[in-house]
Amino acid sequence: MNQADLIWMNGEFVAWEDAKVHVLTHALHYGTGVFEGVRAYETARGAAVFRHQDHIDRLFKSAQMYYMDVPFSKEQIREATLDLIARNSLKSCYIRPVVYRGAGPMGLYPLDCPVDVFIAVWQWGSYLGDEGKRNGIRAGVVSWRKIGQDALIPLAKANGQYLNSVLAKVESEKAGFEEGILLDQRGFVCEGTGENLFIVKDGKIATPGFNSSILGGINRLSAITIARDLGYEVVERDVARGELYLADEIYMTGTAAELTPIREIDNQPIGTGEPGPITRAVQEVFEDALHGRSERYADWLDLVPQPASAP
Ligand SMILES: Cc1ncc(COP(=O)(O)O)c(C=O)c1O
């Protein structure tokens, strides 16, 4: 990990080494926090945060679902993030805001603990690798099922919930796959450990919906918009496990992984075993949108203000 100079904590900019929490931080014991993964890209007009407002909106919704009032406004979080990127002189970066229950009374009732916030930024390459983005990755369906709607809130991006993804990730890595795919409680396809999933069959695109306990991915929405704008039909529906093996193409989307094709699942080649034409078409426009090369999707980018140049 490439460390940055500064981290934003509860309204202050602090040095990376000094960004510390108390051992009795409630979230450390019980997972009582919510977070976002956001990226800023280098564009011709400087660093720009992709779909910034959508990520901040989801952060606040996640916090609300877990009874946390964020002690800053959405605009304060937005400005703090832009300022943090500028102060760290980063042209592109990953952004991790976390809203969590801080040090306070122990025990499971969290509402008497403070709500603390930090934002960290660092340089981070594509999560599943550039080679994976180019040629596709090998994925495997894991034995762990995605957390059910009756146990936790899959559409909230909450820290404790990620133990589910951690188990799935470790299992898939140990089995020799680059990513794990979870089924939902009913046995339908849900998503990757940190990505939403799309399958292409006979020119049509399908992706699991909220019935399958997915996280409502922001890149999922972007990929749906782009595919529809390119003229493809995209439906949200239950996807059976067997459809993975019969698909012509499969790809994943997520802030960390961006748009990554899948070339093999459970040792079965997908289609020709190489990223297919629809995956490529959506990926190309998506990459243009991320890097500010697309007029059409220019309003998905929140530009980091440039320091005023000397007279
Ligand atoms: C479980 C899970 N699903 C899907 C996604 C993709 O969401 P997004 O596109 O908003 O990054 C993520 C990443 O945030 C995730 O952690």
Question: How is the secondary structure organized here?
Answer:
Elements: E1 6-9, E2 12-15, H1 26-30, E3 33-35, E4 38-43, E5 46-50, H2 52-65, H3 74-87, E6 93-101, E7 115-122, H4 130-135, E8 137-145, H5 162-174, E9 179-183, E10 189-192, E11 196-201, E12 204-207, H6 218-229, E13 234-236, H7 241-246, E14 249-254, E15 258-265, E16 268-269, H8 277-290, E17 301-303
Parallel strand pairs: 8-9, 8-15, 12-13
Antiparallel strand pairs: 1-2, 1-7, 3-6, 4-5, 4-6, 5-17, 6-7, 9-10, 11-12, 11-14, 14-15, 15-16
Helix pairs in contact: 6-8
The structure holds pyridoxal-5'-phosphate (PLP).
Distance between the amino and carboxyl termini: 37 Å
Low-confidence stretches: none
What Rg is obtained from the alpha carbons, in whole angstroms? 20 Å
Helix/strand order: EEHEEEHHEEHEHEEEEHEHEEEHE
| Overall average pLDDT | 96
* Small molecules in complex: pyridoxal-5'-phosphate
Number of DSSP helices? Answer: 8
Structural classification: alpha+beta
Portion in strands: 25-35%
Number of strands: 17
Let me know the largest β-sheet: 9 strands, mixed
Overall 3D shape? globular
The portion of residues assigned to helices is 25-40%
What do you see in this structure?
This protein has helices at residues 26-30, 52-65, 74-87, 130-135, 162-174, 218-229, 241-246, 277-290, and strands at residues 6-9, 12-15, 33-35, 38-43, 46-50, 93-101, 115-122, 137-145, 179-183, 189-192, 196-201, 204-207, 234-236, 249-254, 258-265, 268-269, 301-303. The longest helix is centred in the first third of the chain and has 14 residues, at 52-65. The chain contains eight helices and 17 strands. The structure holds pyridoxal-5'-phosphate.
